[in-house]
Automatic annotation (TrEMBL):
Name of the protein in question: Cytidylate kinase
Pfam families named among the record's database cross-references: Cytidylate_kin (PF02224)
Record's keyword annotation contains ATP-binding: yes
Organism ancestry: Bacteria, Pseudomonadati, Bacteroidota, Flavobacteriia, Flavobacteriales
Keywords carried by this UniProt record: ATP-binding, Cytoplasm, Kinase, Nucleotide-binding, Transferase
Any one of the GO CC terms: cytosol
Domain of life of the native organism: Bacteria
Matching InterPro entries: Cytidylate_kin, Cytidylate_kinase_dom, P-loop_NTPase
Annotated binding of ATP, by residue: 10-18
Entry's localization field: Cytoplasm
EC number: 2.7.4.25
Listed GO biological process terms: nucleobase-containing small molecule interconversion; pyrimidine nucleotide metabolic process
Amino acid sequence: MKKITIAIDGFSSTGKSTLAKQLAKELEYVYVDTGAMYRAVAYFAMQNQFIGPDFFDKKSLIDSIPQIQLEFKFNADLGFAEMYLNGENVEKPIRTIEVSNFVSKVAEVSEVRSKLVQQQQEMGKNKAIVMDGRDIGTVVFPDAELKIFMTASAETRAQRRFDELQQKGDNVSYEDVLKNVVERDYIDTHREDSPLVIADDAIEIDNSYLNKEEQFSAVLELVNDVVKTV
């Protein structure tokens, strides 16, 4: 079967990663969570006191970019690859609300985006890849054979994220999660470098009222249709 590149973009907490993992497993493709890469850089910035609630030392972060080594390592028990930062497994700490509060600000930095986009394009040079993020179909893989753009209401996404954090034992409020979702939406869509936009040839999916199985079935049908035509 012909191998293609699948680009999944969309707003935060729309289930991009869940869908991408499902597709990669079904198709036996490589899955890359670009959001985890930006989260890891945000975590690095936090650990090195480059960013906080009322400050952001962009210059120090930019100067430290050569020191940031990112790697995905497959975890057979989990069935997907985990994010490693400078040799350390950071899959759990990068998913906290604290990192979520800073990741969009870090992702605005052009030098950070340049480094990560270069890595992402290298990962996908042989196709057979499913990659999710904010600019995959517009910047990383503008020639991707299938582009999906996922959206849902801010309230729906906040509730999903809140439930997920609660299940992990994180002590957060729904109001704080909703505030984070709305703020990230604004930053992601208004940044100068590679803002979140729908690619002209992307297929938009509003999953406010779709469950995971319905969404997966619909997108898998799109994949099969595209594979037949390439």
